Amino acid sequence: MSEIMIRVDHVSKKYRLGQIGGTTLRAELQRLGARIRHKEDPTRRIGAHVYKKGETFLALDDVSFDVQKGERIGIIGRNGAGKSTLLKLISRVTAPTDGMIGLNGRVASMLEVGTGFHGELTGRENIYMNGAILGMSRKEIDAKIEDIIDFSECRQFIDTPVKRYSSGMYVKLAFSVAAHLDSEIMIMDEVLAVGDMAFQKKCLSKMNDVSQAQGRTILYVSHNMNTIRQLCTRCIVLDHGKLVFDGETEEAIARYMELGGASFEKEIELNTASRRRGTPRKVHFTRAEIHRENNIYSSEESLDLTYTLDADADYDDIRLMMILFALDGTRIGKTESETFSVRRGVNEIPVSVPLEGLADGQYYFEIGILQRSRSFGREMLDCIPNVLPVNISNLEVFGFRGDRWWSNYWGHIMLSPIRLLNQ
Amino acid sequence: MDGKQFKTTITSKHKLFDLHLRETFRYRDLIFLFVKRDFTAKYKQTILGPLWAIIQPLLTTVVFTVIFGKLAKLTTADVPGDFLLPGFLFYMAGNICWSLFSSTVEVTSNTFLRNRATMGKVYYPRLVAPISAACSNLISFAIQFVLLIGFLLFFVFTGRAVIRVTPALLLLPLLVLQILILAVGCGIIVSSVTTKYRDLAMLVGFGLQLWQYASPIAYGLELIPPSVRGVYLLNPVTPIVTGFRYALFGFGFFDPGYYLISWGVTLLVFFIGLLLFSRIERTFMDTI
């Protein structure tokens, strides 16, 4: 049964620095001049990562893995880890510098929004275009066209030039073509981000479907761990061009988090952090210092930290509030402190935030300072969204050690266990 | 590790001439669709539509007839004493040849830049793009050719022109093919080089203009002094254009020796182009 569909065998891809991107003869001469005078390359993009190893950097460094037929592989890693390069090599867009890639079947990538589509052509004509670019023959498309149109939900507009389409419709059409292709290997690169929720769901279930029913192999790249969880049977983690993990999805995600997918800072500068507008900032956050060395907690623990507040006068009716969000932006809940007073100038407020009941996953907070004023009831003095990332990792789920929490089905709160009353 | 168990293997090595011809043939539907796309996209939202394919060479021909024929009074004879042909037909024949050549060079020289969105995302034989560009230009040429024949018959039947039907007529398809091969050859050389240096792309439009003046389009070969004609005829376009007129009208200039040299240059350019192209197509995404 197991049949190798893709073999990536000691593959490296080397890029020469300073030649990435189109250049002109003039830039090339400037570069040469700079090299002779041992100055910095004047044409290099400012802030570009310098992975110097002579004059080159390895986008992929000796990567090897096999993919079996019907597997759904997630490829995760930070920006610049080499994910897209790997996909480019597998889809034969560019050639590796070293090593070999073997493929047992046709590869179909889903085209990005707009690419492969011609604005002047109708949706139907574009389906043929897109299909042909992906290697389908006319006959194959003829056989599939009705399915494709149905799946894309664009039937009403199918004979309208696609330049009048919304970007969501583009994505739907592009995905539909790729999904209905008879290719053995399907590559999806973070493409579902644009479609609406319902369509995303539909795409994921379609991908599950084609891989299970037709035994098609899927390579999926995304930063959205939820979709990775839903789709992938196995994951590969890349970091700086190296394959650092290959195995079970949850473990891979954990590995990726460690790599700094959610980075940890012990001291957080809040003075310059971006804020909600329209807050008077009579009292405002300047700093937060976390009392430990990482941000991985179990739900029995609490998030202990010291806020530094700056006040323009004395107030004795101040409260802190924190709203908890899951990584996908779902609001989980809100908590407030008791009322306390601050003096004019710098105030240090140590606090402890219980994390009780939170299920495994990544969270972050929106923090604010409230004043209970007589005239308005309550006023928000300062509010900073998207700070204090927290990772919850519980050893047990309802008493079972090592069990996994399925947050897509169960939500983010582990409610207190049910009590059996007659015992 | 050998890759025998796989249908496709991708490595860093490549053969000198790896053109994926069989694969290219498998993608013939794509060539067809590209041609169709070029055509629809070009004429959508225009009132006259494909008529533009005719209007353009027609107007150029009229302008040539007036400026070079009537005002500058340049000769329209390729060999001495051979001016039975109205200037209009002479210019039109040269113009449609030239526009087939120049538009094909222009489009194919942009192959990689124009298609980088799709080429950067999926693999399809890269040669599909220049081939389809050549095909869509051939269609325009065919329309223009029919128009030319129409004018030719009109002039002949109204007694304003005399032509000879000779066996050279059979050379026509070969000449058209040669124009395409030469143009695609030049185009893909430029396109391969422009993946790294854009400078050449700037040169194409200008270069083509100069090249046109160096070819007997706006004047007859007769205009060139015999002392430099030997060099002049080395321009591969010259024997093609004069040959085209010779085949069509039955008189003019045709020298088998220079014609063979022209073929030699054409094939040389084409193979250099293919060589560069097959080198570049594997990694052009890294530098484009």
Describe this structure in words.
The complex is a heterodimer of chains A (423) and B (288). With 423 residues, chain A is an alpha+beta fold. Chain A folds into 2 domains: 4-12 and 66-261, Rossmann fold (3-Layer(aba) Sandwich); 267-397, abc- transporter (atp binding component) like domain (Coagulation Factor XIII, Chain A, domain 1, Distorted Sandwich). Helices cover 24% and strands 34% of the residues of chain A. Chain A is built from 9 helices and 21 strands. Chain A has helices at 25-36, 83-90, 123-133, 138-152, 167-179, 197-213, 225-231, 249-261, 407-410; strands at residues 4-16, 56-68, 72-76, 98-103, 107-109, 185-189, 217-221, 234-239, 242-247, 267-269, 283-290, 296-297, 302-311, 315-326, 331-336, 340-342, 345-354, 361-371, 379-392, 396-397, 400-401. In chain A, strands 5-6-7-3-8-9 form a 6-stranded mixed beta sheet, with helices on both faces. In chain A, strands 12, 14, 15, 16, 18 and 19 form a 6-stranded mixed beta sheet that branches. Chain A has a 4-stranded antiparallel beta sheet with strand order 10-11-13-17, with no helix packed on it. Chain A is globular, with a radius of gyration of 26 Å. By secondary structure, chain B is mainly α. Chain B has one domain (21-287). Chain B contains 13 helices and 1 strand. Helices cover 66% and strands 1% of the residues of chain B. The model of chain B has no long low-confidence stretch (mean pLDDT 86). Classes of the chains: A alpha+beta (423), B mainly alpha (288). The interface between A and B is large, with 53 and 43 residues. β4 (98-103) of chain A pairs antiparallel with β1 of chain B, so a sheet runs across the interface.
